[in-house]
Amino acid sequence: MARQNKPIRVLYSFPHRLGAERICTTAWYQVCGLAKAGAEVLACPGALSRPLPPDIVIRSTLAWGKLRIPYRVLGDMRAIAWHDHIISRRLESLAGEIDIVHTWPLGAVRTLKTAARLGIPTVLERPNAHTRFAYEVVRRECERLGVVLPSNHEHAYKEDVLAKEEIEYQLATRLLCPSEFVAHTFLEQGFPLEKLARHQYGFDERIYYPAAEPRREKAGLSMLFVGGCAPRKGLHYALEAWLKSTACHHGQFIIAGEFVPGYAEKLGSMLAHRSIQVLGHRTDVPQLMRQSDILILPSIEEGSALVTAEARGSGCVLLVSEAAGAICRHGENALVHRVGDVAELSHHIALLHGDRALLRKLRAASLRGVPEITWKAAGVKLLEVYRATIAAKADTGSPDRALSA
Asked: Reduced to 3 DSSP states, what percent helix, strand and coil does the chain have, rounded to the nearest 5?
């Protein structure tokens, strides 16, 4: 049980390079947000790629000072398994000094088993939908489009990955779901509501912020897509909806991201339209967002796309699918469409093109809510989830309670 009126002591186990790209960035901000919220954090990454605040204790598993074991030498899966083994051994000597263990997919089976034996509650991060659901929905979409994902792509079906993750799902005290969409995919797979804990991700307001000068109204909309250009992100739906709307005659649709093999070729005729500009991978995304009216993300499955919070912080209005996991409210500060509904999405684009007062209203409401979606706010929310998980674990006399937003 957590000590009364004392900071929560968390062992944060992350099997990758904390502070590198993608989920490694998510985890880095999560650790920083926890410390700001008042947790005592023992960060145990595979390696550290970016310095952490001095009040966070760091004990890497695959690095000692400047010496690192390259993941490519061991192979990613073997390196992650070794990390899991080391953390499970460390837990043995930390019993009584840790209130909760935070784990990440594929690097947690031994750690979760050891924590359960020691009576320490655990949470497992779910940065994406249930993996079985994700594999199946992406496979169907790729087959429909005639696109074959590279075998090493994260959403190409891998039986060993799925099997390991499904073991982890069962072993964890709680599964951390960053969006209602993620939680729903687990409920559909038969998981009880009590197993699921809702938290959230955030954005760095020092990097993503609106332009200082007032926006000049233009004849055409500027719409932006940011992310990996792959079928699961629904870029094909965005292109079709844009070209079916009146906005394509006067506006500009900018695409920032790299395409998976074969996907751009399938979309060639749409990408060739004069209103569409393909930039490839970019390092100036914050500036692109500050210059754009809309961020579009018609994903068919996600966890909670960080780009949606970053766009809100930069002053973009969100046009997203229900699967994007965005922190927003339809009609209040964003427009949300059903997955794959091109007609609805095209209507939303045309609506904002023709009604600039609505665009300004949505943008103003979105910016007012920005303090609720920073990494600082996410740290506070996660700490609340920890406390509730610890309390539910200790309260053996009554049923566990669902942890919902």
From this structure: 45, 20, 40
